[in-house]
Amino acid sequence: MNKATAIKRFIFIGIFLILGIVLSFAQFDIPGTHYTYNGFANSIKLGLDLKGGVLAVYEASSLEGDDEGDFAQKLNATRERISGLITAEYNEAQISIQQGNRLRIEVPDVSDPEEIFELIGTPATLEFKSENSADATAELTGQNVTNAYASYQPSSDGSYEYGVVIEFDAEGAQKFYELTSAQQGNSIYIYINGELFSAPTVNSAISGGTTFISGSMNSQSEAEDFALQILSGTFSVNLTLLENTVVSATLGENALLYGLIAGAVALVLIFAFMIWRYRMMGVMASLALVFYVILMLFFLQAIPIVQLTLAGIAGIILSIGMAIDGNIIIFERIKEEYASGKRIEPSVRAGFKKAFSAIMDSNITTIVVALVLALLGTGSIQGFAITLLIGVVLSMFTSLVVTRGFLNMYYPLNSTKAKLYSLKREDTVVELA
User: Fold this and answer.
1) Which tens digit of pLDDT belongs to each residue from 68-81?
2) Same domain? 196 vs 66
3) pTM to 2 decimals?
4) How many Cα atoms sit within 13 Å of 51 on the Cβ side?
5) What is the distance between the alpha carbons of residues 10 and 4, in angstroms, rounded to a whole number?
């Protein structure tokens, strides 16, 4: 690579980094469209402690008569059902299991906990019977319901009415088919909370695994409320509210602002130290760190499971430290190689080669720990682990690939002046060929 090519590549890198910074932080309306571009940083989903919202903790217990042996499975099924209910309305909500029998629900950007409690709903027991009696045995219950949603469909007289479409699992579909087969020409009785809700006449067996029920629902809103009641009645465990807290959004905004200021100051100090200590190698490391920040912001907003919290910010800061640590290890190895008598370019190659194993060992160990915390941890621990994992992977990439690429591009611009690399050796050391 000659000097002209190296200069062109650095110009291209500079334009790319400037564009990356603009895309990371700028907000602007796209001409000719109604779309507003918010930038990577502004598109990151924020957690409860940064954005404010509602925290609720429920204690779970087995339903009466249930086998305790499959409690964990039923609790997980309930978590998934609640997750479906809440994330349909609030896609940033986080629902996790804690201490083996508790559900922790975090919903950012909500100020009224009643919104969440209404969404979860008051559980309604759903029963399908062949006899019109509250004491009769139910052939099918809400435990076999997989989904319920409001609908507007034609009735038997040709008019349209509001109701709820109920979808069954495989076992429920079979039971419903058997019930409607046995009751052809007669009614099936649908009980809600022990009271007769509807008694439709069965004209033919229903084998599709779905049914539409209607009754006293006079609006879309009433049908949606009823669908939520049915879904909440399909929980596999009893839930008792232990805690509900409203987190101030102002507190989160201040924490985020101070975190950003601290991060910006830290980056400036890191740039200053690296350039002072390693000169042009420090400049290349600083450019690589800017590249790292852009990639980090992009992946934080692009990966669906990421929800940034204060603990997550700590994970990012720790990974930045590891990125700088990797560069320092490399540069110190380069200085050792040059001091032993090698020329600049061989010293750079040998420095990266000898530093590779040390960087890989330390980073892989951290990756394993982060994976364990992400898989087994909950709440803020999981948030810390996810951002740390992303940061460590990116730090390895920027240290071993990006910094090395920048140094290789800079070498044609300076292949002889060791001081610009902050390299030196004793006068008695003979330079190797």
Assistant:
1) 557 777 788 778 77
2) yes
3) 0.68
4) 20
5) 10
